Amino acid sequence: MYKVVVTGMGVISPVGNDLDTFWNSLKNGVCGVDTIKRFDASGLKVSLDAEVKDFNPKDYYDSMQEIRKSDLFMQYAMAAAKQAVEQSGILDSDIDKERLGVYIGSGIGGINSTIREQDKLREKGPDMVSPFFVPMMISNMAAGAISIKFGAKGPTLPVVTACATSTNTLGEAYRAIKHGYADAIIAGGSEASINELAMAGFINCQALNLSENPDEGSLPFDKRRAGFVMGEGAGILILEEYEHAKKRGANILAEVVGYGNTADAYHITAPDPEGEGAVRAIKSVVAEGGISDDSEIYINAHGTGTHLNDAMETKAIKAVFGKKAYDIHISSTKSMTGHMMGATGAVEAIASVLALRDGIIPPTINYKEKDEECDLDYTVNKAVHADIEYAISTSLGFGGHNACIAFKRYEA
């Protein structure tokens, strides 16, 4: 078994398109939720989202031709991957490219390309559908494009588990390195599904908050919570075998120490109310990571702001940690970023690593009304300083997918 560490990170998000801006926003409680500007939403019941702002793909691609062949979810992934690869310095080393992998997923994939090309088909006929439609639409193509860009020839695959997607990519990458199948893996997730069709679908399954006030849109663990806010973006981490990273003098940001992957086998959209699957996922990372009752812990909760999720997740944390649950630092950064879907796990993993690095717990903002079902310490409204040793990030997806990953503070 090999030790696995984080040596690079990159992010495109509603609160910043680089690590420093993203982290400063989280620490200062900056809200990325606002009124929908991407399209005319006057015909929808929902009026809020969390859009990526000021993103220019030209900053990350060598030509307009490359950009035209890439759906927005691929562009976000490429941008975050370039940041992570650059920070890690992994390509400046003598790494064997056949042992460098790419595990990048998307919950929905190229839905914007699908809508655009369907419109062309209907209005102009089949001959006008782009020859690049299929590679822009399929969910594996962010991983494929990044593999091509960086010459990564090792284990490479996407994961599609809805909102658990990129926690699963990180966890599966961790296992691949831990068991000796790769020296390093570019891992994470991306999503760009803010459009009228996707939002109409989520509205009609009663998942989104219908508030018109950005400060009342994403309200994890608050009694007023009434659904999530759709976000978008990408998060990418470089996971690397410890001795490989140490030998090349890499800056190690944290150690990956545990991964849990379970299913509820309960319902296509609703979580198991008792959180049995989430409990097993969290218990597995606690056991694998050697996390004890004496450990100082931060949990970046899934915390979507839906009634069922937040109550269930609170139950799950209590079931795993007992009385200690009340001493654990918890927050939902979705209160600031919205729900970034297939990207959310990786972006929240990045927040977890930064919390470990700096000893700062990002807040759950816009919290006002305590709910008797949610009675733990959710780090409300303001960041706090804490000397934490472990950070746990949970992600729970439609279909009953539960994923959990644990990091340990690295000390040279």
Give a verbal description of the structure:
The chain is of the alpha/beta class and 412 residues long. It folds into two domains: 4-247, Peroxisomal Thiolase, Chain A, domain 1; 260-401, Thiolase/Chalcone synthase (Peroxisomal Thiolase, Chain A, domain 1, 3-Layer(aba) Sandwich). It contains 13 helices and 14 strands. The protein has helices spanning 19-27, 64-68, 72-88, 111-124, 133-137, 141-150, 165-178, 196-204, 242-247, 276-289, 307-321, 334-337, 344-358; strands at 4-12, 34-35, 48-49, 100-105, 156-157, 184-191, 233-241, 254-263, 297-300, 329-331, 360-361, 384-385, 390-397, 401-408. Strands 5-4-6-7-1-8-14-13-9-10 form a ten-stranded mixed sheet, with helices on both faces. The protein has a two-stranded antiparallel sheet with strand order 2-3. Strand 9, helix 11 (307-321) and strand 10 (329-331) form a beta-alpha-beta unit. The radius of gyration is 20 Å and the shape is globular. It starts with a strand and ends with a strand. The relative contact order is 0.19.
